[in-house]
Amino acid sequence: MRVLFTGGSGKAGKWAIRHLLEQGHHVVNVDQTPSGLGCPELLIDLCDAGQVIGAMSQFVEFGELDTGTGVPTYDAVVHFAAIPRVMIGTDGECFRQNTLTTYNVIEAATKLAIPKVIFASSETTYAICFADGDLKPDFVPIDETHPTVPHDSYAMSKVCNEMTARSFQARTGVDIYGLRINNVIEPHEYAEMFPAFVEDPALRRRNIFAYIDARDLGHMVDCCLETDGLGYEVFNVSNNDMSVGLTSDQVIKQFYSGVEVRGEMGPNETFFSNKKAKHMVGFQPKHSWRDVLD
Description:
UDP-glucose 4-epimerase, EC 5.1.3.2, isomerase, Epimerase_deHydtase, Rossmann fold
């Protein structure tokens, strides 16, 4: 597939693009800085609607000029570009850029009749990550039916983006899938970070004791590219196990006392349920920090 990918120069985007290239997709990265991945790139401001629709409807490589068949079209757009969290700039600017860029990308894609859009939402939509104090979930494991009423501007922007996507899908009928991505971990970060998580599990409370390997995130994007006809859907994206050394029963006792537990949980099962992604798009995460640390 020919895929326009926004934000491919970021932490998650680089791994996702690498995976898509390995699967044989033709990827064009759209960002404000080069990625160094070797794929075609356009450096634009996604807050400018004219630049966005222009990027989706122009030549990007000299070789495309040789066919004489006009500008090639895209099979899908993957939108990862965003201010990645609060407390980088002002709250208002985080919300403005994240909502405006998402609106511009989805509007341009649908107007150009690109049949699929995949966009990055977030674990933060469930409010816990950037809450003031210790906010507990309504129930565990958290699945996509859990309320999304966040308290911070980053998570607010993601909830707003989900409604934007849902509205465009209702109007156009194209497939638009949102990925509620958990804390992205690169392979080298297991040895660097996870010993501390084993020592002090409370460090992972705000991430719902979950994580997503950057390579498995790329696999999830590919699963969505290969799955048609779902309309509008959102998916939690996480690995199968927790990011701490405790058992699920121990986590519940220590951190989720009084919280409803829906169903039996395996001893290492993630509290950020990925069952919907497995069932609907064939997501099968392959990596674990436990393969690196004994």
